[in-house]
Structures are given as C-alpha cells and as structure tokens.
Design brief:
Chain lengths: ~425, ~325
C-alpha cells in the first residue's frame, strides 16, 4: 500500500476550518494524517513549500459530451482538462446523445471515467425521459447507476407539475434536482441578455425574467415538497435575491455560479464573438455585482465551470447561429483567483470552500475534505503563479473559452486523486 | 479631416466629423447622376462584390449602380446562387471570394455582426448593407443627407421616427447619426415595438403621434414589417394605421414645411396613405436618388481615398 507525503504547504481545509502550514499524509488512497509530520517517510514526497494544499476541487457542472459528441470532448479529454485545471471530481450533465436517462447510460459514464483514470467522474441523470420534460425518467435506476443528481440541464422542465413530481420523487434518494431556470416562452429567439446592449446590437434578448420566473416557481415547489433544489448557473440579481430569501425561510435550496457570470458582462458581445455566447447569457454589471455579493454572504454555495465544449467550426460562425456554451475547466481557478481573491473580495479559505466542501454537500458526496479517512483527493495551487490563459495549451478538445488571452494569477500545479498523483508540482 | 476607416460597419462608431465627411463627399458625387454620361473613373480596376443573403431590390441595385458609376467591376452574389446553400460557412465563402482578388465587399445578412465577422477574416473593405436588426448605415446616411439637403442643416431639427423601432436596423443607424449631428429625435410607435432601453440612445419616446405633430420638422415612417413579427405586437394593421399612419388629417396638424420620409418599400394605406406618399411634402423618391450619391461616397472613402482629394471629372 503506497503512501504519499505532501510537505510544508499552506493546508486549507474549509470543512474543518483549517488554514495552517502542515504536512499531509495519504495512505492507500485515504487521508491518513495532517500535521507536523517531520519524521514520517513515504513512498513519494511532494514539496509544497509556498503552495496551497486543499481538498481536491469539485466541479458539479460540466458537459463532457460523451456519449454522442466525442468530436467535441470525451470523458477522457474532459477529465484531463479537469486535472489540468485542478479539479479532482466532476459531475457530468446528461445532455448527451443518447441522454443519460437510464441505469446503463449512467454506468457508461462511470465506466468511461474509470477507463480514463484521471479524475472522479460522476453522472447526473436526466429528470425526464429523453430530457423532453414530459415523463419522469427512472430516477431510482439512475441512482443505482451512480447518478449523483438529476437535471434536464439546458432544457428547463416547463411543466410545473412534472417538476413537482420530480422533486417529490427524488426526495427518496436524498439527491438534489439541479435546475436550469429558463422560461422558454420568454427566452424564445434570444441569443444574449435582453437589455440595452442586445437592443443596440439588434440581437434577440433573453430577459432576466425568463430565469427569475422559473427560480421563483421552483423555490415555491421546493418549499411545498421539502425536496433538495439546486439552482444551476445563477446569472441574475433577481435570482440571487430569491435564493437569499428562500434560504432565510429555511427552504432547502442551494445555488451555483460560473466564472464567466462572475466576471464578464453583456458588453463583451459588442465584438460579436461567439465565445461569449452561453445560456444563461452574460448579464449586466449590476448582476455581476449581485452574484459577487451572493458569494460573500453564502447565498451562492458553489463555483462551477459549466464547461461546454463545442467544435471550432460550430463556433466560427455568425453570433446568432453559434451554439450556446463555453469551456472553463482550465480557466476557472486562475480567473477567479485573480478576480475574487487577488482583488480582495474573498480570502483563500472562503474561495476554496466554494469549490470543495460546499459542492460536495450539495451533491451529498463524501468528499471535499482533508479529514483523516476521507478519499485522498488533493489539489495543490501556486497562488503567486502568473500566467496567460492560452486555449492552444488546453487538454480539452475544445477552444471556445471566453478568457483566452487573459493574464491571471494563481494556478493549480498538483492534483491527486485517491492518493494517485495525476499532476505534480514538479511537472510545472 | 483625414479618412482612416477601412470599413463602414455602422454609425454607432463614427464621429460627427466622419459622418459630415461622408455627406460632403456625397455632395460632390450627386452631380454625376445628373450628367448625360453618368460615369467617372474613380474606382477603375477595383472589384466590388455585392454579397446579399437577404432579398433586396433597392439597396443592392443602388450599391451596384454606385460602384459601376465609379467604373468598378461589380459581382453580385445572392443567397440563392451562393454555396451557403451547399452548407458552406460565411467565413469560407468570404475567403474564397477574397482569393479571387477583390477590394470591397458589400454585405446584407440576417445575422447582426455578420459584416464584423467578415472584417475580422478578410483583407477587403467591408460595407454593411444591413445586418439583422443591428445597423443599416447607408440607409441612415442617405436619410440624413436628404434632410441636410432639404433643410440646410441637421442640428436643432426635431425628427420623428415612426413604427417598429425594435426590429429596424435603419432606425438604429439613423438615431446614432442624427444624435451625433445634434438633432432631437423622437421615436413613435406601439409600446410593444419600442425597446425599453431606447432612451439610453438619447431619444424621446412617444406613443401618441397626434400630440407631437406640431413640433416635427421631419417624419420618417418605417415600414410595418409583418414578416419580422413573431408574436402580434399590435391588434391589426387597421388599428396601426389609425394610431400611427400618416394621412391627410395628420398632415393638417403638422408644420407647413414638414418633410415626409420613408425608407421603403412602403405599404400604402398602412404607415402612409397614397396622397401623403405622393404629395409635395414627400421626399421618398429623392431619398432613392440620394442613396446613389451616398453609396458612391462610402465606396470611395473605404477604398482608401481622401475626402479632400475628390475631383469628379
């Protein structure tokens, strides 16, 4: 049984409110001990002096495109991108072809993740068969296939009665329903945020109301059913406020935000660059401000990438014709370390919490901690490393990153999954 | 001033000086259209491609004629004959055309930003002839040119733009241009077709046409584009004509020297009654004539020539 010693790093484990210089010992894929371990000898030692040592980062919202769109990303290429970006666990959305709406398809995702042998890969199952919003999929079977949550991501369940049933049914399995909130009647024809910029550019608008209407509907349904509701990629000030109020009332709702919604605004679309096109769309500076306040006061629980690869040819077209979605596994940490931590909004422990223990709790995963006995999933971060995001160096197959060319500070330099070193600071 | 722009993509990014330079250059070209032999050698040896992905009669003809009057070679490519039908992307179409050695592309496209995409991937000059609901700069320039020609100025005039502001690229370009030149602009139309944020462009909003008629120096009547309307933003064209159509009764309430414009094609009896369209206040056909001079000026300037070097002989 092999042992791994990570020496002398600043160990940040928000699950235990830990932030101190220490050594971390992993034994047989589990965390054995954290502390001053001067005399301990291990099979492998990593010098983490000047680096942050955190629980493995968890991204609960990615699209790895397999099965069905392997030319855009595979579970193996997506897992490689995750590791490069510092993520040791990802949860894959079910909008594949076929969709992940059966036990076998969920098991396929798990199996491909194991074959890739990089990060932990968990499937998210579809709420409804074929993600068509009509009949519930076999949520119990999906759970047996290791699905960790249920979502029709990208295709909001428009029928409130179906959503109510899904919430009620998923309760049995103590797993959340993840909600892409978009009233498709209000967003119809929209390609960007509906506001001043869309008006000037003559592009169809997706109004903030299309998100807010469903957030409000589903918070009401979550209250009624007492089930776990997780709001995906919150993008509007209105949604942040509704989640805040719901939490204060004790409703079991959680929320996540993406790096792009926390940093960019609809002004970016003046370039007509389809790498700024995603759904929900980039909103206004006021929305960005509200999201950041939401991070600060705990309204927003987690940071995600919503990594959505598209082939170059699909994105190199007129803005209106390009598909929604941008990639983020390899840019999220650097961008937000710069925008949120270096700029002083959050400190490192607050930031790491949003990518470790919080997402683990949302998904009810026994991860996101360096407690002895936990899986030895560890991320090592160089907080001072300045680098330029360059899509041509990405492990992802896709290049549609809105942060390409951006100068950032802070980079994942090590990733350990169940005690196995997948990326080491020495590879730097 | 020195003209430095390689493309004409919209009026939002132009300065008042640049707009005035185009109008002054158009003044010099307008005389060419009145000659018996309507041709100058200005763009001899240049190739202009009209790349039209949406149906268009007057804009395409106007650009084609403008280029030919300056002795350029003109190629017309429309959607029906292009390889877009065979699945070719806009960028590939552009690169293939460019490989044949061309100088200026005039593009009309349903997607906002399509001309901007071409400007990124081509070496040729790009002229926007209408991109979705975004901009239609030459339509706005010819409208403003006509206003300046008839009224002697633009600054200080009160101009109403009436109709479907939300879906109108010409309205957006016209608003940018008129505001930069110091006009007061009022947009008039059904509340469903006036975007919420339009006042940030510096215009006033009015839903009751009759209330402001007495203030208006110029009335620009947009076409009711039923084909662009997905839902029903107003109950019927009959009601539209009642609330926003220009007719004899409204003419009587207007200033004596009010000027009636329409970008065309017009729906007689909807946004304008025939007697107004054909009446003495209407400049609709002069707009078309001026369109040629304005487009000659635009092609001349984007081809790298300077406004003050112009000698039309």
């Amino acid at each position: 049984m092999s042992t791994l010693l990570i020496k002398g790093g600043r160990v940040i484990c928000p699950a235990q409110d830990m932030d101190r210089t220490a050594d971390v010992l992993a034994d047989d894929g589990k965390i054995a001990e954290v502390g001053k371990l001067g005399g301990v000898k291990a099979d492998r030692t990593i010098d983490a002096k000047g680096l942050l040592v955190t629980p493995g980062l968890i991204d609960i919202h990615v699209h790895l495109r397999e099965p069905g769109y392997e030319e855009e990303e595979t579970i193996a290429s997506g897992a490689a991108a995750a590791i490069a970006g510092g993520f040791t666990t990802v949860c894959c959305m079910p909008n594949t072809e076929p969709p992940i709406d059966s036990e076998a398809s969920a098991e396929f995702v798990v199996l491909q993740g194991k074959r890739a042998g990089l990060c932990n890969v968990y499937p998210i199952g579809a709420i409804t068969t074929g993600r068509r919003g009509a009949e519930l999929s076999e949520i119990g079977s999906l759970r047996r296939g290791r699905a960790v949550a249920f979502s029709d991501d990208g295709d909001c369940v428009m029928n409130a009665d179906v959503m109510r049933s899904a919430l009620q049914y998923a309760r049995m399995f103590d797993k959340p329903i993840i909600d892409h909130c978009e009233d498709k009647n209000l967003s119809s024809g929209g390609v960007m945020h509906g506001g001043y910029v869309s008006m000037v550019l003559g592009l169809g608008g997706i109004p903030a109301a299309s998100e807010d209407v469903i957030v409000s509907r589903d918070i009401i349904l979550a209250e009624m059913t007492g089930s776990l509701l997780h709001i995906a990629h919150v993008s509007t000030a209105g949604a942040v406020e509704m989640v805040r109020v719901a939490k204060a009332k004790g409703i079991s709702v959680t929320a996540e935000a993406t790096a792009h919604h926390l940093v960019l605004t609809d002004e970016c679309i003046r370039t007509f660059d389809p790498n700024f096109k995603m759904n929900p769309p980039l909103r206004t500076a006021e929305d960005v401000e509200a999201l950041r306040r939401g991070l600060l006061d705990g309204t927003i629980d987690a940071i995600v990438s919503d990594h959505a690869p598209h082939s170059i040819e699909k994105k190199q077209v007129e803005f209106s014709f390009a598909p929604f979605g941008v990639i983020g596994l390899e840019s999220t940490l650097g961008v937000l370390a710069t925008e949120l931590v270096a700029d002083g909004l959050l400190d490192w422990p607050q930031f790491i919490r949003l990518m470790t223990v919080n997402p683990a709790r949302i998904m009810r995963l026994p991860k996101g901690t360096l407690c002895p006995g936990a899986d030895a999933d560890i991320t090592i971060i160089d907080p001072e490393k300045e680098w330029v995001i360059d899509v041509d160096e990405f492990k992802s197959k896709a290049r549609n990153c809105p942060f390409n060319g951006r100068k950032v500070k802070g980079k994942a330099v090590g990733a350990i999954v169940r005690g196995d070193v997948k990326m080491s600071p020495r590879d730097r | 001033m020195r003209w430095i722009r390689k493309h004409l993509l919209g009026l939002e990014e132009l300065s008042a000086e640049e707009i005035t330079a185009i109008l002054d250059t158009a003044d010099a070209f307008s005389e060419v259209s009145r000659r018996p032999r309507k041709k100058v050698p200005t763009l001899q040896g240049k190739v202009v491609v009209n790349l039209f992905f949406e149906p268009s009669t007057r804009t395409r003809t106007s650009f084609g004629l403008a280029a030919r009057r300056m002795s350029a070679d003109v190629i017309d490519i429309t959607r029906a004959m292009s390889s877009i039908q065979k699945g070719e992307t806009l960028i590939d179409t552009a690169r293939n055309i460019e490989a044949m050695g061309i100088d200026i592309v005039v593009i009309r496209h349903s997607a906002p930003g399509a001309p901007h995409l071409l400007a990124k991937v081509m070496d040729a000059s790009i002229v926007n002839a209408g991109d979705g609901c975004h901009e239609h700069p030459t339509q706005a320039l010819l409208d403003i040119y006509t206003i300046r020609q008839k009224k002697g100025r633009v600054e200080g005039l009160t101009v109403a733009i009436v109709g479907d502001i939300g879906h109108s690229r010409a309205a957006r370009s016209t608003i940018w241009g008129l505001k930069k030149l110091g006009a007061r602009v009022i947009v008039v139309g059904p509340s469903t077709l006036i975007p919420k944020h339009i006042t940030r462009m510096g215009v006033e909003v009015c839903y009751h046409f009759d209330d402001i008629l007495h203030e208006l120096d110029v009335i620009n009547l947009l076409r009711v584009q039923r084909e662009r309307l997905e839902s029903s933003p107003f109950p019927s064209t009959r009601e539209y004509a009642r609330l926003f159509g220009m007719n004899t009764a409204r003419m009587a309430k207007s200033k004596d020297d009010v000027m009636i414009m329409a970008p065309g094609p017009i729906n007689r009896g909807v946004e304008i009654t025939p007697d107004v369209a054909d009446g003495k206040h209407s400049v609709i056909l002069e707009q078309v004539t001026n369109g040629l001079a304005v487009r000659m000026a635009v092609l001349y300037l984007v081809s790298g020539k300077q406004p003050d070097k112009l000698k039309v002989r």
